[in-house]
Amino acid sequence: MKAAVVDGQGGIQVQVVPDLQIDAYQALVKMKACAICNGTDSKIVAGKLPFVQEYPGIIGHESVGEVIQVGEKVSKYKIGDLVFRPGAFYPEGAELTSCWGGFAEYGIVSDRESMQSAGLATPGFAVMQQVITQPIDPVNATILITYKEALSWLQIFKASPGESVLIWGSGPVGLSFTYFAKLLGCFPVIVCGRRDSSLQDALAMGADHVINTTKEDVLKTVRSLTNQQGVQKIVDAVGDFELVSQSIPMLAPGGDIGIYGIASGDDEAKKPVIDPGMRYVPWGLKVMGPDEAGAHQQMMDFIRLGLVNPGFMVDEVIDLKDISHGFSLVRQRKAKKVVVSFD
Q1: pTM for this model (two decimals)
Q2: For 13-58, what is each residue's pLDDT tens digit?
Q3: Strands 26-35 and 12-16: what pairing?
Q4: Sequence-ordered list of residues with C-beta below 8 angstroms from that of 28, at least 6 positions apart, any chain
């Protein structure tokens, strides 16, 4: 089969790789689509994601595919199911590692529940390998992975109806946070970004106000928009340590800063000392991961009720052979989301 292989030094090539072999607790999946994760995938290609160290590897984690074969112990999946997060996984010690392995013609999903019932250890990634129960085009379905992360993260962050929220970042993740903050009843939702075009997208996703950080004084504008009170929740959607110190004066008393974005490996050496200045009022700093699996049924219900439109995010659909071009579009900010279709 063919797959996109990265070397951790900026190179990405489509290569013929070994076929996958499933065991009794796994299902083989024909890949239908996989989206480029603008932040994480770009860092993996460059070798700058701190917890991905082994190369060469098959990249891609925003994947959707159709089950075509099931192991004898599998009960979670059946042939024909559309599933989230299949990937090309090889045994330990194989020549290729898996950087989640979504940009491959075939992938594997594991039946976590059957493995647990048998007393077997389960791969952590398997909790996110869930069946899509509502009708949706696979290309658009890839975006639901980011949607589920953003929705669950905001709920863990306790973003509540009527609370003011500021979001750093107007890329796909920031836009996802914007939409679900509004769906959860937050007001006002303020989005900070550097490009007018992406800030227009934020308005289309429901933002109450947008701030171009290259043209406006963010602190002054936030204070004005909140009657000098500051915001109650601040979301770092980009993974920039310096935003923490910048955010503190924008907080209302008792407010919280939440860090979602993952800094690149280079940024680890540049962590600033957090300077609270003269703020002697309580505030909180939280570093949290999402609960993508926990938001699955909620997202399926949102689809059923017509409350989400993942197609808004997809600007380019390409073939696997053109994946280098897809990453170029991402680097040049010419597309919100680029999706590889295998059909």
Answers
A1: 0.92
A2: 999 999 999 999 999 999 999 999 998 899 899 888 877 778 899 9
A3: unpaired
A4: 20, 22, 67, 68, 69, 70, 106, 107, 108
Beta strands in 96-161 (DSSP E): 97-99, 106-110
Domain finish residue from 287, 309, 324: 287
Within a domain: residue 150?
Answer: no
User: Would residue 152 count as lying in a domain?
Assistant: no
Compute the distance between CA of residue 223 and CA of residue 231 in angstroms, rounded to an integer. 8
The residue among 287, 309, 329 that closes a domain is 287
Of the candidates 188, 189, 184, the residue with the CA atom closest to the CA atom of residue 174? 189
Structural domain of 328: 2-145+292-341
The helix (run of H) or strand (run of E) holding residue 32 is: strand 26-35
Nearest CA-CA partner of 132 in 121, 145, 120: 145
Alpha-carbon distances, residue 236 vs 46, 276, 282, 330 (angstroms) = 22, 17, 19, 20
Residue 108 domain flag: yes
Say how many domains are in the chain: 2
Query: Among positive and negative, which fits the CA dihedral 188, 189, 194, 200?
Result: negative
